[in-house]
Amino acid sequence: MKQSHSIHPAMLKICAAVSLAFAASMAGAAEQKFILETDRIIVKYKDAVPDNKGQARKAALGADRKAKLDRAGQQFGMLVSESHAISTGARVFKLNGRKGLKEVQALAAEMMARDPAIEYAEPDRIMTHMATANDPMYSQQWHYTDATGGLRLPTAWDKSTGTGVVVAVIDTGSRPHADLSGQQLAGYDFISTAAIGNDGNGRDSDPTDPGDWVAAGECGVGSPASNSSWHGTHVAGTVAAKTNNSLGVAGVAYNAKLVPVRVLGKCGGYTSDIADAITWSSGGTVSGVPANANKAKVLNLSLGGSGACDTTTQTAINGARSRGSVVVVAAGNDNMNVSNANPANCSGVIAVAATGKTGARASYSNYGTLVDVAAPGGDGSFSVLSTLNTGTSAPGSDNYAGYQGTSMATPHVAGVAALMFAAKPTLTVDDVESMLKSTARAFPGTCSGCGTGIVDATAAVDAALGTTPPPGPTVAETESNNTTGTADLVAVSGTTMTGDLSSTTDTDYFRVDLPAGKTLNSVLTPGSATIDYDLYVYNSAGTLLGKSENGAGAVDSYSTTNTGTSTFARYVRVVYYSGGTGSVNGKYTLKMTW
């Protein structure tokens, strides 16, 4: 059974913020894993070129070159025999049986060291099908796949699924659920007050959620009645619901493991309990509590309250970071500046705003300079679908429901952090935050104060693996470019234009010939905190497609997709609003990628 709920605007006070190889053909088959072996190596010599029919010119290998290859192979106990040439001009050589990719990479390096005539050598990798979840509700999880507002998750799964990483969900606890079966490790209940815990006692080793329903007035004069939220169960499903099990929904890091840590009950939870939970989850010591046998690399806190960051929470966060744990926190659902929402305003956390299906800021989401990134949290008629329970007070049966909130955006980011750690376990806390922010994609809708962009799962994992494409060139604008007819042509994706507005009436145009199906992301960065320049984007006919008009010192960004079948021009314009001008005081950079 699927339901739809909105978890905002209540933030409970501290509360819930709310591939070519053989493939299996039957439904329900597990995804194909990466094949980490090969029995072939590719070698490209500098003097080899393809002919005009796309076939390599295959001159004789030569005894000297063959001898060098043989000696390199002997170094690693491998026999190297020539197989065939390919259209790029490279040659394929067979090895005596399958070898690990790292071994073959080492062989490739040895070949290049022995023969300077080799342009490159690399393993001939065996590819598999790209991972696609077979869970029946996966098609409803727009927040993973939607080209505009989604996480761009499926292609990340071909590189990482979270294996070996533990994520702590510090929340209301969790219910047993068929789609979380085998995903959850031993957790703990840190609620120290029986009335809040609603389980008849204080702290104990059972993090099961008994429900957090309240009667009218139970949480203070005038407070409304509410049903049990099963909030932690919903968050847990987004992080790591079991996937490719032909049941329910998919999780972001579905091969990660979850540690449910209960801190929220009736009417919320105490800062002190939350601080202890942060410490324990990250492998620290809490008096009277057994050591955590499953230290979490990622802590998900879809909770918060108002006011400045308190010392207790900041100290706990500092400790967690020192032990190598990333702390991901919901920005909050009060449509206000996050500077008044804690723990999102604490130092060292990754604060997450929420966007809807259009990629614009969700109507309820907090915002501000302390927000690091955004992720899908749902808005309007589009919610985030995940695991839940049918009970309105006490637990009922398993089900699935759509919720909205920064609580829902946060586990998307926590899940991506788990994918990154699984891809490269040696990443530091600062590495993860930096990569999440630098690889986030430009907002396709208006999202002022939402951080650097919407988290891009595939780009973040690529960055973790070190496979991020090299940066594009930096080019100075050339005057005059103050009309579409004299616009500077930008021909290379990733180009950063440096320029300035010489006067208050100056304007700069840049032309991109955008291929069919591509999305142009334009990011305008002012040269100082006093500059307020705006970003406009036009189609080939000069019709305004959209604009970004953020305030002084703020970054402006806009994205536009060519939905046609041919290449069309797009004109990106930088417009003066206020601040300095000239080659010293009027500087800006404009990066364009597609």
Overview of this protein structure:
The protein has 594 residues and is of the alpha/beta class. The protein folds into three domains: 37-123, Alpha-Beta Plaits; 132-465, Peptidase S8/S53 domain (Rossmann fold), CATH 3.40.50.200; 474-593, Jelly Rolls, CATH 2.60.120.380. It has eleven helices and 27 strands. The strands form six sheets. Strands 8-9-7-10-12-14-15 form a seven-stranded parallel beta sheet, sandwiched between helices. A hairpin with a 5-residue loop joins strand 23 and strand 24 (544-548). Helix 6 runs parallel beside helix 7 (311-322). The longest helix is centred in the C-terminal third of the chain and has 18 residues, at 406-423. The relative contact order is 0.11. Residues 1-6, 8-13, 19-35, 51-57 and 127-132 have low confidence and may be disordered.
